[in-house]
Amino acid sequence: MAKKSKAQKKRYGMKVEGPVFVTMRDGTRIACRIYRPDAPGKFPALFAASPYQYETDDLPHSTLFLWREVGPVEWYVRDQGYVYVHMDVRGSGQSGGTYNMLDKEEQQDFYECIEWVARQDWCSGKVGGLGQSYYAWSQWFMGIVNPPSLKCIAPYDGAVDMYRGTAYHGGIYCDFMAWWYQMVRVNNLQRAANGPGGQYMPLDIAGEMAKHQTYDDWWRERCAWERLEEIEVPVLSIGHWGKMGLHLRGNILGYEKVKSEKHLVVTGAKDVFEAHDQFDHIWYHEQELLPFYDYHLKGKKNGWNKRPKVRLHVGGCDEWRTDSVWPPREAKYTPFYLNGKKSGSVTSLNDGTLSTKKPSANGGSTDWDYPHPGWKLGTVGFGPQGPDPVCGVVTFTTEPLEKDLEITGPIVLELRASSTNTDTDFVIKLSDQQPQSKADRANGLQPASQVVSKGWMRASHREKDKKNSTKMRPFYTHRNPQPINPGEIYTYEIEVMPCAHRFKKGHRIRLEIVNGDSPLTDSLFTHQYLYYKVGTDTFWHNAKNASCLKLPIVPAR
Hints:
This protein is an alpha+beta fold. It has two domains: 224 residues, Alpha/Beta hydrolase fold, catalytic domain (Rossmann fold); 223 residues, Sandwich (Jelly Rolls), CATH 2.60.120. The protein has twelve helices and 25 strands. The chain is globular and about 80 Å long. The model has no long low-confidence stretch (mean pLDDT 95).
């Protein structure tokens, strides 16, 4: 996509009103800030809702302010003729009530606020949802409660299953959500010196997330995924391959389950910061989101309906793949088997291989003890190059590829494993390992690599949800954890996040397995290495117990 925006004179002055209070069914007053063209007439409205306070709209564009996720507000109003309404959800900003993170009360507030907006004399009666992250979570629920005036939603970077997608990856508690909630509380409460104090959020939601270790009614109330089929309006779901620990799964599963008119876009943004930065730029809205809104809220015949239903950025080659369906029909799932033979290409605990050849009867197994004495920060060790995320993990690596190989679609690791413990964790990474000179290999330097995908699973959470599982995406209940028997071999089908990536000729595909991670490698989305994770795990790779990585190979376009 070209990163240009058309030069254009500003068409409207902008009138800013706030706080404007909307009274809910229980008497709670919800605060909004309204940005609208300072001109006669009726305009469609874009609606954004979060606990991040509308005052943050005034902040400059910067990835330092990760909660400023509303996009170019002034551009939408002055240049495009939209009203922009920013709602502080109950218990945040200047809104009354108690904040309780997307509970049923907040969901109903979306309905009532959207209908209030549609009734105003400056509104055309048509409203669309807009925004990133929490604003995208809100949009899924806006669609679910289906206010009559809502005509479309565009959840950019938004999870649909808070338990599986953000707080308990594969049943493993993630540190991010507790950090996130404390950040929200501080931002709502603290002000500059001598300024009036903000609002304190009294509920210990971080504590609730830690307490509710399984997928129970507390999580179900906040889970859009179970109700996505109730959405009736058109949906533009935009995800990012680099947001594996937070939103990627939501945008893809959200697209899959929605039954209304829908489009899926997955960008090449590599992390939180790239995804955030992109959403702040006019060029992105001009090329991607504005045509969607103009088509559904203004009735413009701009060709939006002729765009491909699925557009995916392909990593490794910086190209785009378009399709009418997801996953691609031409994806051919190919098993790559784990093998004990040395690859000689990387320094790790075992340096095993990955091959399409089935293992032999005496293929053996790989044992590893944990915690590893070389780990310094989480599961990262240190080597000649400094921090080394690979030297202290188990790896299985292919031979150099004889030709380019592209994978697009969901991924599954079928792992045969046993443990000395009654429970264990699997943290999976799929990496693109680049060629390395013989001299660097001889000197013990690690080859350059890029993490392409990740997956997680706690062994005790292996109860499968048969109704929602598919051949290439195991789905787990996370309701009935059961210990494993020490020494017994189990088959674990581990969901690895979908991806679209081309491994170039001469590169290698590398599978990494460990039971933890590190802030150095996983940024905000780490998993605490808890005290009971001491023992030995065994990964089996013989004919009787053949472990394999199932990759969706597609013809390169």
